[in-house]
Design brief:
Layout lengths: L2 E6 L5 E14 L4 E7 L3 E6 L2 E5 L3 H13 L7 E6 L4 H6 L7 E5 L3 H10 L1 H4 L7 E4 L3 H6 L5 E7 L13 H10 E12 L4 H17 L2 E8 L7 E8 L10 H6 L9 H7 L4 H11 L1
Parallel strand pairs: 6-7, 6-9, 7-8, 9-10
Antiparallel strand pairs: 1-2, 2-3, 3-4, 4-5, 10-12, 11-12
Helix pairs in contact: 7-10
Length: 284
């Protein structure tokens, strides 16, 4: 008998992955977590029935949410990662010697433990001595911070689930206050392709663009994400993601990547017309 996992992108569209076996399944106070083994995507993790990441394509997300801001900001020393309990974002951040402190705030401790057991190539990022993991609610954690971080990465899963508070107007305002005078934040912006996802994309950009003087959006192709097309938000107090991109400095680091390049960085901000129109409407 064949086993298939189906991730419903809409009521009428689903991504189905043939499963070799289920490796883990449990209900926590915050979410349902499952881990599966597949021939095509390797191991993948789902939260409440939606794929969070897979071994085959997680590098795209983690590289794009880390290397884009790191290639722009000239001096990142202290980073806050909200979510990020799998360790993939911390792993990419650990490549930068200039970073002195990485705070990871993850609400679900079980999520972290599951990733340590089944996704060690991601979770190794949490073992860096510069990393401190706080098992706290991200919004509450932020309320106590003021002008403390150079970079905030919102790696929360879902604007509609248990992390919904991380996509509110209060959240963006708290991020602004927690950043230093030249700080920036990046965040997963969802997919704009399906009608039922468009509104959350609009709301996120509206809140970010009204909270930060510089607010841009960039894109990547991630097969297990909704429609395979994913957006990221870039919000900054000072630096522009294209005008302040330092290609020479980034290349001199000699970092090994599978997806990110400085050429791709520039191209990622060149968006389809329907996305440009959507963002412009929310800015106005």
């Amino acid at each position: 008998m064949e086993l298939w996992f189906s991730d419903y992108h809409t009521d009428k569209v689903k991504l189905s992955v043939k499963v070799e076996k289920q490796l883990f399944g449990a209900e926590t106070d915050l979410q349902r977590i499952d881990v599966f083994e597949s021939a095509e995507f390797g191991r993948f993790l789902s939260s409440d029935g939606s794929i969070v990441f897979s071994e085959k394509d997680e590098f795209v997300y983690d590289e794009m949410i880390v290397h884009v801001p790191m290639a722009v900001h000239p001096n990142v020393e202290k980073v806050l990662v909200i979510g990020g309990g799998d360790g993939g974002v911390a792993r990419e951040l650990s490549l930068y010697n200039e970073i002195k402190q990485i705070d990871v705030v993850e609400a679900d401790e079980t999520f972290v433990q599951v990733c340590k057991e089944f996704f060690p190539d991601n979770a190794c990022g949490l073992e860096d001595p510069r990393v401190t993991v706080y098992y706290r609610d991200g919004l509450r954690f932020l309320r106590t911070k003021q002008e403390e971080y150079d970079l905030i990465i919102n790696d929360a899963i879902d604007p509609l689930g248990h992390t919904a508070g991380l996509f509110t107007k209060e959240f963006y305002g708290n991020c602004y206050r927690a950043l230093r005078e030249d700080g920036m934040m990046v965040y997963q912006h969802g997919s704009p392709f399906y009608d039922e996802d468009e509104e959350s994309c609009r709301l996120m950009h509206r809140k970010a663009s009204h909270s930060f003087p510089i607010s841009k959006v960039y894109q990547a192709h991630i097969p297990t994400c909704s429609s395979g097309y994913w957006l990221f938000g870039f919000a900054s107090k000072k630096y522009h993601p294209l005008r302040d991109l330092d290609e020479t400095r980034w290349k001199e680091r000699g970092l090994q990547t599978w997806y990110y390049t400085t050429n791709l960085h520039k191209g990622a901000f060149m968006l389809p017309k329907y996305v440009e129109d959507m963002l412009l409407e929310e800015e106005n």
